Amino acid sequence: MLSQKPRAQRKKQLVDFPQIPDKIYFTIGEASKLCVLEPHVLRYWEQEFPQLKPVKRQGNRRYYQRKDVLFIRRLKHLLYQEGFTIDGARVKLAEEDAPASINHYDRDFLRKVISSLESLLAELETGV
Questions:
Q1: Is the pLDDT reported for residue 3 higher than 60?
Q2: Which residues have a Cβ under 8 Å from the Cβ of 23 and sit 6 or more positions away?
Q3: For the residues 55-68, what does the mean pLDDT come to?
Q4: Furthest-apart CA pair in the chain: how many Å?
Q5: Mind spelling out the 3-state secondary structure of the chain?
Q6: How far is CA 88 from CA 9, 28, 53, 63, 91, in A?
Q7: Percent of the chain having pLDDT more than 70?
Q8: Which of 38, 37, 23, 19 is nearest to 77 (CA)?
Q9: Helix 66-76, helix 86-97: angle, nearest 10
Q10: What are the distances in angstroms from CA 11 to CA 14, 58, 102?
């Protein structure tokens, strides 16, 4: 009987993705070939990741855009090469989408809004 190494110890194999053609839309078959995945995996990931929303036309046929193909490749890297779980990848992608920080002007604006809301709440509580 052959023993397998635990998942974390297996040698991770990097995938060379085909070049993305200069097109606007890709069918699920084309997208799956560009990402070296089976179409059923893409359909499953659509359910798990709200960021992956292909355009649906004619009889519910899926058409992926370039941004979708790039997202799928990033997701595949997180799951297959970095060893993230579906939940872990979801969190990681949400962190990447979040703005890095609030700039100085946004902070000043938010402070003014908070101050206005606090004074409005105080007026409501005192019945003025």
A1: no
A2: 66
A3: 92
A4: 81
A5: CCCCCCHHHCCCCCCCCCCCCCCCEEEHHHHHHHHCCCHHHHHHHHHHCCCCCCEEECCCEEEEEHHHHHHHHHHHHHHHHCCCCHHHHHHHHHHHHCCCCCCHHHHHHHHHHHHHHHHHHHHHHHCC
A6: 19, 25, 20, 27, 5
A7: 80
A8: 37
A9: 130
A10: 10, 43, 40
Q: In sequence order, what are the residues at sequence separation of 6 or more whose Cβ sits closer than 8 angstroms to the Cβ of residue 82? A: none
Single-letter amino acid code for the residue at 119: S
Q: Which of 45, 30, 29, 31 is nearest to 80 (CA)?
A: 45
Average model confidence (pLDDT) across the chain: 84
Contact between 52 and 45 under an 8 Å Cβ cutoff? The reply is yes
Residue with tokens 């998942």: 7
**pLDDT > 90? residue 55:** yes
Are 75 and 89 a contacting pair, CB within 8 Å? yes
Q: Check: CATH 3.40.50.300 for 20-97?
A: no
